């Protein structure tokens, strides 16, 4: 935790974890202000978790969430009021400290000179020069002056973003590319299922972002606030502007933990866990190891979600561990899905049902988790009847694995790039935006009807790379994405049902059936998941090696 002092009364820092709070109190701070909305990143603790620790330490704490680059005058005024009302010294935090610093600059613009605001912010490592344009109203629009311009700008440094940058450079060395992403760490999220089973350590799924950005690509370490496609501009946190010739948008999903009442109050405690967050996956394994019987619930929200098989993977691996430990017979395992089928591609269901029966899992479809009471250990579900009426049931639990509802990030869903449901509106084959020809979307935030998995991004990246270069006049013909996705369903430790399919649920096996029959559990598929796919991800996909991922050309 790197705390930076703006004034004697106010300091700022990056994301605070619950474990940081005792040190904050020991450093003499009396109050904390959180300026980061929940659910921005997969490794982000909720405000409620920090608040609980702050209250236990006797600190005042307030929640004033601000979307990156969207600091309003009203929010600045509210921040100003908090600075005057709360006991000092105060620590404000967001993802990096930039939003908190921006709020301070706007809040104190009538008390400090512009030069003094810039000087103090710069001393803390924050550049408020773009905010000064807003303060002094020298620009009629925030897009009037660009801080930088690039031939290709990529929003998102996850699996899709880094892969497409590498694929572009493999085809066109020296191309002017910038990646915009504020994260310090890049995660191999498919590995979190195995962290939750004790197979992987969390550190095996994380690498420093800077080590993965392709050589020659500029990394703009900032959050995106919005898009102005008519001006070929992206607005960043701190009111900075980046312009482009071609834009690729792949920021991943937003996990809406707040969408389930009471969930953020109890995550990581009271037997409530989720493999969808980096810091919680180890808690899943902790719960599984110490489970001696009782009610174990596993939930799946309405589609779309990241890796639709992941909720089941956690369940099967937990059951396998309990079977090996001799406690499965004392366990009542229940699966609650908002959907109406175990898996969307019917050919894989028979193999999964064999495990459902072997583990004596109680399947409940049409059940959507709406609330969690961790203290009482009660989960509440809404249930749709055959007549369409909605009711509610309460189910007790000893442990519960929760998958939160998921959406595109706010800066996407509220932008001109979004379809009515909030997803990036692209052609499902070319992945080109339907209304803005120099914009492409891939990965989890797009509305192409494929599975939202890293395997899909691996196939999409070469398609987008080729089609961007086609737009720039550097390649001939267009490439087409066929909807390929893969979901290695971990049904027990040592066996996987390797689901691979294209648009329309058409099976798309990568291997001959005599080697790996994807419709049956396979030890070789487990070896692929545990030993082959992680290095293929780090050393292949992210470095532009398109093994078994060459795009299909049309024209």
TrEMBL record:
GO biological process annotation, one example: sulfide oxidation, using sulfide:quinone oxidoreductase
Q: Which cofactor does it need?
A: FAD
Entry keyword set: FAD, Flavoprotein, Hydrolase, Oxidoreductase, Quinone, Transit peptide
Q: Which residues form the FAD/NAD(P)-binding domain?
A: 151-461
What GO MF annotations does this protein's record show?
Answer: FAD binding; hydrolase activity; quinone binding; sulfide:quinone oxidoreductase activity
User: What is the name listed in the Swiss-Prot or TrEMBL entry for this protein?
Assistant: Beta-lactamase hydrolase-like protein
**Pfam families recorded:** BLH_phosphatase (PF04273), Pyr_redox_2 (PF07992)
Q: What is its EC number?
A: 3.-.-.-
- Origin species: Pandoraea terrigena
As recorded in Swiss-Prot or TrEMBL, the protein's gene is named blh
UniProt cross-references to InterPro entries, sorted A to Z: BLH_phosphatase-like, FAD/NAD-bd_sf, FAD/NAD-binding_dom, Prot-tyrosine_phosphatase-like, Sulphide_quinone_reductase
